[in-house]
């Protein structure tokens, strides 16, 4: 899925309005970011800078998807508005995914999907990622891009 402006059926609570500066990355998150930046460099684009606040907002969405057993972009408008107001972003995009076993698989899946690929190749300068596991060991991915 790529970002959508559709009205969400279930709303997400925007729990963090201020700047989040601390975020601890797991190996999956680091791998996905590296793979995305390697891809961008391979096609002549600049690599994206990591922003902990964006990763925190991504993690909030992963936890929402896990709690509600859904994969969607509900609350994207709120996440986007937060990133615009807190970080001064002029543009925000989002990719989500579910149940890919490896970082390489999720990035490959996104690159094979026109909407996701458009975000990865987009005119962005920064990004964040969260990869969280549900109780059954399935991975949920939220990758948010921003132009700051």
TrEMBL record:
Domain SCP span(s) in chain numbering: 34-142
PANTHER family named in the record: SCP DOMAIN-CONTAINING PROTEIN
Entry protein name: CAP domain-containing protein
UniProt organism field: Flavobacterium flavipigmentatum
């Amino acid at each position: 899925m790529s970002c959508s402006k559709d009205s969400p059926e279930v709303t997400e609570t925007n729990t963090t309005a201020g700047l989040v500066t601390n975020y601890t990355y797991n190996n999956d998150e680091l791998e996905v970011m590296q793979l995305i930046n390697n891809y961008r460099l391979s096609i002549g684009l600049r690599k994206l800078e990591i922003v902990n606040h964006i990763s925190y907002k991504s993690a909030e969405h992963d936890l929402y998807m896990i709690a509600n057993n859904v994969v969607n972009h509900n609350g994207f408008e709120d996440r986007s508005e937060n990133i615009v107001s807190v970080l001064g972003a002029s543009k925000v995009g989002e990719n989500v995914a579910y149940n890919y076993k490896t970082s390489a698989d999720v990035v490959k899946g996104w690159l094979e999907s026109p909407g996701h690929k458009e975000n990865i190749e987009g005119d962005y300068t920064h990004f964040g990622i969260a990869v969280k596991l549900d109780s059954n060991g399935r991975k949920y991915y939220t990758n948010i891009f921003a132009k700051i």
